[in-house]
Amino acid sequence: MIELKDVHKAFGTNKVLQGVDLTIPTGTSMVIIGGSGTGKSVALKCILGLIRHDAGEILLDGKDVTKGDRDAFLARFGMLFQGGALFDSLPVWQNVAFRLLRGSLKRPKDEAREIAIEKLRRVGLKPEQADKFPAELSGGMQKRVGLARAIAAEPEIIFFDEPTTGLDPIMSGVINDLIREIVVEMGATAMTITHDMTSVRAIADNVAMLHDGVIKWTGPVAEMDASGDPYLDQFIHGRAEGPIEAVR
Amino acid sequence: MSAITRPLGRLGRQVLAALAMVGRVAIFAANTVTHLARPPFYGREFLQALMQIGWLSLPVVGMTALFTGGALALQIYAGGARFNAETVVPSIVAIGLTRELGPVLGGLMVAARVASSIAAEIGTMKVTEQIDALVTLSTNPMKYLTLPRVLAATLAVPVLVGVGDVIGIMGGFLVGVGRLDFGAGTYLHNTIDFLETWDVVSGLIKGAVFGFIVALMGCYYGMQSGRGAQGVGRATKAAVVAASVLILASNYILTELFFSA
User: Fold this and answer.
1) B88: domain range?
2) Is residue B68 part of a domain?
3) Do A50 and B130 lie within an 8 Å CB cutoff?
4) CB distance from A36 to chain B under 8 Å?
5) CA angle A79, A201, A5 (to 5 degrees)
6) Domain tally for chain B?
7) What's the ipTM?
8) Which InterPro entries has this protein been placed in (chain B) (predicted)?
9) A1-70+189-248, superfamily in CATH?
10) Is B133's CB within 8 Å of A45's CB?
């Protein structure tokens, strides 16, 4: 279980997180929604320790994420980055098997390649793509490779940062379905950040709405449409009028 | 009154900012060096960096040395003629190249080629979240990106300087024999007789220091890169400028240390 308790983070005078409280039970899929610049990515990066939060507590299975063995902590996570964040200098299979080629999870090269090809197949890519470089792939394919890399070491927790940004609606649907299938199949805990309401409905068990540095609403996805929360209503219906100020 | 204090305040802020930056670079350098003693080590990345920084810089360093050696021979001959000292050409070319021009010009050429490429590569990795991806894949970017490059440059640049010394002396030899009517045997004899081991070794030590500076600046500014193409461009420019200035400054300090009476 991941718990955020009164988490604060500011960059200079810009207070991004102002007391975030959120619980993600083990084995569930939580989707965080909210406008651009509301701190969704910052919250995610704070959990991973990529950014250090200023105050509050972030707990993983009851333990403070800032303490203890960092490698063991990170080994439990997989992450799909917004732009894929694939390593340009490495072929696709080495991107997927990155974790399996070095460090505590190191496997023999042949075995790592086999696992990489199997994961590529799982996300709908043929083995022929394995020896290509990321620059030779389309945006959708890069997202799939990123997804394959995120699940390569079979993590317990997977984070997805804007998984469908920049993709056409059909490819977005494919990625959403893949994420849902993989999360269910692996029994992983998932946390997704997105603006895309189609993704929310496809991926989420639970939804949290982040606005003004705090969680405005959280609950099961089935209750989202009837929440009665003005912020959530405005966001999910994409209305310009409402409590969330639209900058024009 | 404020007309006087305002510029002073601005100056003070700039001095503080400069000192803070020196501190950040020093911490970055210390952090890099301490990773030498802390596994894991990434041998493949080190060999790739060695190839990029060493082998692929050879043509540019070699060409620089060749033309510098030739031009130096012409200049010393013309200058020496004022004192009827034309015969010192081979020894001055050799000493000038090995002690000073070989390492400094080699270092500056490597700074232009390598510091820019390292800063651009790491800067792009930063803005495309590849550095964050490395962390989430349990890989320390300092170990995976910085240490192999800094180590490779520290080892490769002295070798480049050594090769450059030989090519530069050959440039002087070609001009001396071809244009200035030196006998080939006499030229080589004068070169070898007056050249001391310390002349060469001091240049190689300078090369190692310059290599360290070049890669460190490339990595530091790459890691500090701002967002977007403009951020990467600024990081690249800053890396080359900082590496070049530090090479020239450290060259003076090393020359003081090695050769002042």
Assistant:
1) 44-259
2) yes
3) no
4) no
5) 55
6) 1
7) 0.87
8) ABC_MlaE_roteobac, Permease_MalE
9) P-loop containing nucleotide triphosphate hydrolases (3.40.50.300)
10) no
